[in-house]
């Protein structure tokens, strides 16, 4: 496989927004590096049916060593990173007075810390390549408060702030960093319980 194909990295690629994003990027000629906690079989089939080259890494991206291994795997796969879609996310639905610290931290680890770790790791590649893009899938819950979702709201508010900070740092060096804030999407999402 040549090392010059445009490559998109998508977390949470097994379902919902991540799966559809992978399909669209496959149709646009990207090679795909997919991540999820479970092997994204349906997504792999869908993108390969569209003619895309694809690889996957089944792992918990809240672990910094896993993020570094993912970068190494993508480097071996295609030698480049053109688009990073930080889409993986979890929610925890509970009144604030009953929410455990462990559940709160778990949501922050997946929804906020992991996007930072991946942006940092792939961002280094992108800064060397120039003209690349990081897209963080935030939420309308990052702009307003939604009851019974203290951890989720905090993580998505933080992700928007993190996006703005990285955009300020890297925009002048040709790496765009943006966040999308979808409203309610009828698709699967892991719930911390």
Question: Any overview of this molecule?
Answer:
It is a single chain. The protein contains five helices and eight strands; from the N terminus they run βαβαβαββαβαββ. α5 links the parallel β6 and β7. The protein is of the alpha/beta class. It is globular and about 50 Å long. α1 packs parallel to α2, α3 packs parallel to α4 and α4 packs parallel to α5. The chain has a domain of 124 residues: NAD(P)-binding Rossmann-like Domain (Rossmann fold), CATH 3.40.50.720.
Describe the protein's topology.
Elements: E1 7-11, H1 16-27, E2 31-36, H2 41-49, E3 54-58, H3 64-77, E4 83-86, E5 90-91, H4 101-129, E6 132-137, H5 150-170, E7 175-180, E8 190-191
Parallel strand pairs: 1-2, 1-4, 2-3, 4-6, 5-8, 6-7
Structural class: alpha/beta
**What is the beta-strand fraction?**
15-25%
What CATH architecture of the domain at 7-89 and 109-140 and 169-177 would you give? 3-Layer(aba) Sandwich
Number of strands: 8
What is the subunit arrangement here?
Answer: single chain
From the 3D structure, determine the CATH topology of the domain at 7-89 and 109-140 and 169-177. Rossmann fold
Rg to the nearest angstrom?
16 Å
Number of helices: 5
Mean pLDDT: 94
Q: What proportion of the residues is helical, as a percent range?
A: 40-55%
Distance between the termini: 42 Å
- The backbone outline, from C-alpha atoms, is globular
In the sheet with the most strands, the strands line up as 3-2-1-4-6-7
Q: List the helices and strands in order.
A: EHEHEHEEHEHEE
Give me the CATH superfamily of the domain at 7-89 and 109-140 and 169-177. NAD(P)-binding Rossmann-like Domain
Question: Which stretches of 5+ consecutive residues score pLDDT under 50?
Answer: none
Largest sheet: 6 strands, parallel
CATH class of the domain at 7-89 and 109-140 and 169-177: Alpha Beta
């Amino acid at each position: 496989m040549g090392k010059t194909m445009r490559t998109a990295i998508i977390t949470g690629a097994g379902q919902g927004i991540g799966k559809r994003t992978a399909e669209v990027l496959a149709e646009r000629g990207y090679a795909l590096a997919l991540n999820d906690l479970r092997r994204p079989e349906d997504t792999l089939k869908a993108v390969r049916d569209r003619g895309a080259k694809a690889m996957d890494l089944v792992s918990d991206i809240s672990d910094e060593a896993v993020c570094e291994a993912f970068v190494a795997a993508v480097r071996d796969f295609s030698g480049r990173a053109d688009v990073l879609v930080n889409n993986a996310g979890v929610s925890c639905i509970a009144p604030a007075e009953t929410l455990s610290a462990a559940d709160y931290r778990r949501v922050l680890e997946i929804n906020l810390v992991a996007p930072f770790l991946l942006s940092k790791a792939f961002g280094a590649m992108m800064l060397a390549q120039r003209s690349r893009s990081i897209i963080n899938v935030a939420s309308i819950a990052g702009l307003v408060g939604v009851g019974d979702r203290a951890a989720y709201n905090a993580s998505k508010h933080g992700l928007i702030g993190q996006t703005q900070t990285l955009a300020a740092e890297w925009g002048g060096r040709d790496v765009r960093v943006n966040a999308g804030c979808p409203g309610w999407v009828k698709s699967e999402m892991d719930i911390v319980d």
